[in-house]
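Q: I'm building a small set of examples for a reading group on sequence design. Run inverse folding on the following structure and report the sequence directly after it, with nothing in between.
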């Protein structure tokens, strides 16, 4: 589970870095000549679309991870309860 948490953290950092990179590109785009500015900002727009797709995939992964974690937790609780009941039964049987 730790590796998944580390991966999620790494992806959050990467998304923030991309946002900062896009801000820098936009600032540079304001400096270019008018003849290339439109193409420059169109390329930035395409990069934003790719980033949005990556973020959606990340959120889907995160939701799946949280769901899997909840399922694992529920399974662990069920196993724990089953073990508790088995121990109580064995203890009661031994006292007879």
């Amino acid at each position: 589970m730790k590796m998944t948490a580390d991966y999620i953290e790494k992806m959050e950092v990467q998304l923030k870095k991309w946002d900062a990179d896009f801000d820098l590109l936009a600032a540079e785009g304001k400096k270019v000549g008018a003849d290339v500015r439109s193409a420059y900002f169109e390329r930035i727009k395409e990069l934003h679309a790719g980033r949005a797709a990556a973020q959606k995939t990340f959120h889907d992964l995160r939701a799946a991870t949280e769901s899997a974690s909840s399922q694992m937790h529920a399974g662990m609780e069920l196993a724990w309860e089953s073990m508790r009941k088995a121990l109580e039964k064995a203890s009661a049987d031994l006292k007879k």
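The chain has one domain: 2-95.
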